[in-house]
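Exercise 3.2. Students should predict the tertiary structure of the chain below and write it as structure tokens, then compare their answer with the key that follows.

Predict this chain's 3D structure.
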Amino acid sequence: MSKKLSTQQCEACHVDAPKVSDGEFKQLLNQIPDWVPRVRDNVMMLEREYKFKNYKLAWAFANKVSELAEAEFHHPSILLEWGKVTVTWWTHSIGDLHKNDFICAAKTDQLI
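Answer key:
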């Protein structure tokens, strides 16, 4: 895990893909300190809220996140509001966190 998360690529993920272990979780989360682990519907997720001066800036950021998601073929929940975008990453196919979620969270931070 010495390689910087934002320089890595997502791997194809299937139902039997490995979930992040407890040890990996702590190491990976340390690399994205502004992200908060959340549990919704018994699914662990990573979430971060980004604030902007207006709706147009938030909208532009949400579009960048969408482009990242397509490039990585890994898709988050994106909530666009006036002056705010909330991004939530998790791996749908395993119903939990995979290393891909941490990679995409790190890449999302670079879009600012």
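Discussion points: The helical segments are 22-30, 55-72, 99-109. Residues 43-112 form a domain with the Gyrase A; domain 2 fold (CATH 3.30.1360.20).
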